[in-house]
Amino acid sequence: MNYEEFNHFCGSFAGTSHVVQWGNSDVWKVGGKVFAIGGWSDGSQAAFTFKTSNLNFDFLSDCEGYKPAPYFASRGMKWIQQVETSGKLDDDLKYYLSESYRIVASGLSKRKQRELGIDHLAESGS
Predict the structure, then answer these.
(1) What are the angstrom distances between the C-alpha of 119 and each of 13, 23, 91, 126?
(2) Which of 2, 26, 50, 97 is the least crowded, having the fewest Cβ atoms under 10 Å away?
(3) Residue 126 forms part of a structural domain
């Protein structure tokens, strides 16, 4: 996945906003809360950062192509950075970006979810 594909995918979620910040990174938010970052790589290779469940954080921390996210993980937050961007993990990345969106959106107040038109997340549990 490249940054253009990443931005297109993240933009497909309801109630999202995009800003460029933190060293020219593509930062995706839902309800003002970050759920995905494209950038922060070591060098010219693309890297994608997302929030995970505790279980997925523990699992991905030990998987090739992933590492605990710089800045976030060192502060105890469950964020992972995918650094393998040859394309073989694109389907996995889409799943983890979707999960990150769900985790962050579900943490918003019910009022904010209604305002964004995403209150179905709390009702369906997904």
Answers:
(1) 13, 33, 26, 11
(2) 2
(3) no
Residue 51 belongs to domain spanning: 3-119
63 in Cβ contact with 79 (< 8 Å): no
Residue type, 101: Y
Question: pTM (2 decimals)?
Answer: 0.88
Confidence of residue 42 (pLDDT cuts 50, 70, 90): low
- Spatial distance between the Cα atoms of 6 and 26, rounded to a whole number of angstroms: 9
**Confidence label for 23 from pLDDT (cuts 50, 70 and 90):** confident
